[in-house]
Write a structure and sequence with these properties.
Elements (H helix, E strand, L loop, with lengths): L1 H20 L4 H9 L3 H12 L1 H13 L8 H13 L3 E7 L3 E7 L2 E8 L29 H16 L6 E7 L5
Parallel strand pairs: 3-4
Antiparallel strand pairs: 1-2, 2-4
Helix pairs in contact: 1-3, 1-6, 4-6
Length: 177
């Protein structure tokens, strides 16, 4: 189950984004709900091909947790990756260490927001795994390492599918109030 969790989350988020962003008639909505489309298969294959990359990235974030408002390394990695994927208007330092970006589809449509937190908690890592926290007293205990990894996976897959996106996707990393 754990091996399929990250790609599965990417698929759920992508499906949610497409459902929200792509205009459909009521007839195509019911057809879409009952059978997978070619786009669904494309997304599933892309997510599966990224499995090793996503696991490696998630483990890296897990090994290098940062407390809230101290996510310097994590935000740098996220911003660098979003720029490398060609996202527009990548902004850093939003609310201290937040990162935002735009992915514009080639078709008209609404703006859909996505977000993920990336902070860790002040808890000592006790799990004895190869990717355990290297930061004494700080660990990812609530899944934000996965959230951040999933959002990077979403960004990568969608950046390769711009011609199918109706509207703009904004976000990628939540910032603190």
């Amino acid at each position: 189950m754990k091996r399929k969790l990250t790609p599965f989350l990417v698929l759920v988020l992508l499906a949610s984004l497409y459902t929200s962003a792509a205009p459909r008639s009521s007839q195509s909505q019911s057809a879409h709900a009952s059978s997978p489309t070619a786009r669904d298969e494309q997304i599933a294959q892309a997510a599966e091909s990224m499995r090793a990359q996503l696991i490696t990235q998630r483990r890296d974030f897990h090994m290098h947790p940062e407390l809230s408002n101290h996510e310097e390394r994590t935000s740098r990695i996220v911003a660098e990756r979003l720029r490398a994927l060609g996202l527009e208007d990548v902004k850093t330092g939003v609310g201290k260490y937040g990162v935002t970006a735009l992915l514009k589809g080639t078709k008209p449509g609404p703006v859909v927001a996505v977000r993920a937190d990336m902070d860790a908690l002040p808890i000592q890592e006790v799990n004895d795994v190869p990717y355990k926290s290297l930061v004494p007293g700080v660990k990812h205990a609530c899944g934000h390492d996965v959230h951040t990894t999933v959002e990077l996976g979403v960004a990568e897959i969608l950046s390769k599918m711009r011609d199918q996106i109706h509207g703009t996707i904004r976000g990628w990393r939540a910032f603190h109030d």
